[in-house]
Fold this sequence. Notes:
The protein is an all-alpha fold.
Amino acid sequence: MLKWLKKSGVKMALVIGSLGTLVLLVTAGVAIEKTNSLEFCVSCHSMEQTVYQEYKKSLHYKNEYGVRVECPDCHVPEVYPDKLFAKIIAAKDVWHEILGTIDTKEKFEKHRLRMAERVWAKMEATESRECRTCHAFDAMNLEDMGRRAQRKHPQAQQEGKHCIQCHKGVVHELPADYEG
Length: 180
């Protein structure tokens, strides 16, 4: 009897462990996808009154092509584990909203440069990976660009530059204390 109990106990533990792991993975996957939306991103008061308003004035929100790029497209990698790491890091913004660190426009502006520098550093480390999902040098039609862009983009490509090195402040306002 004791042998059977030991064997069945191990089997039962494996079954429960497997089911528990499956439930945890499905729940985590659903949570990651639910938090990967524009609606979730701007649900915080500070985001609604600052960066969301800036975004709505940008070409990423409204343009002649009718293509809309949303928060996760720029700020959340598509691949795991990078996507999971981005979500964990972004949780601090929710935490600071709850703590009241950035819950008003004035408080948000006080921390904007530090937050922007963190995003820029991530984009620099990935060579603007999320930008390049949509923007590729070889897909650019230089004839449709202004004179400066026609001159700068081929030069940037030749020098191995990427988006964030030249395009800070495209969607969101540059911090008042930015000295770029």
